[in-house]
Amino acid sequence: MFQPTKAVAWVKAKFSPGIKIKKDDSAELQKLLWTEAEASLRIYFKALIEELLKTELAAHLQASRYERSDERKDYRNGAYERTLATRFGEVGDLQVPRTRHNTYATKLFDQYARRAKSVDEAIGTLFLNGSPPGNWNASPKNSSGQTYPMPPSAALPAKSPPKIALSSRKKH
Question: Is residue 89 within 8 Å of residue 154, measured between CB atoms?
């Protein structure tokens, strides 16, 4: 659940009665608020994905956890961790369930994909538009014109990588 501890403590310290507010304080508060909101969104999104994976696995197995059934197709066999990049930021330590005989493969994302398809589409759109890496901080659009929100942690550095001069070799 969302617990804005840092933001609340900062507000209580800065906006106590009798303290004058500085202009710099609003920018600092906004940065703190959005950083905490982004982290909370990622935690919620991770819990949502994991719950969907568990539900999908139960439907595949045709039996819920600890249930004995003649229709059961396979058995749960723990989970493995993976990281998935989404348009909301990177979701780390995602618990993906597995079965004993590997009969289950999730339909939420590809088995070996590290990025959601929306992220791949955004990267491809930026590349095809000829946008240099220095301009990738802007929110990309997909083929239907929908803008993807870019969280602050997903922003790339404003500078382009330095160009490397290749030395020419003489052929002998």
Answer: yes
Q: How many CA atoms lie within 13 A of 117 on its CB side?
A: 6
Residue in 81, 64, 80 with CA at minimum distance from that of residue 72: 64
The residues spanned by each domain of the chain are: 5-115, 116-159
Q: Which two tokens stand for residue 3?
A: 């617990």
- pTM of the shown model: 0.59
**Is residue 5 helix, strand or coil?**
helix
DSSP H or E stretch at residue 81 = strand 76-86
Residue pLDDT, tens place only, 92-151: 889 999 999 988 888 888 877 788 888 888 888 887 877 766 555 555 555 555 555 555
CA distance 32 to 107: 36
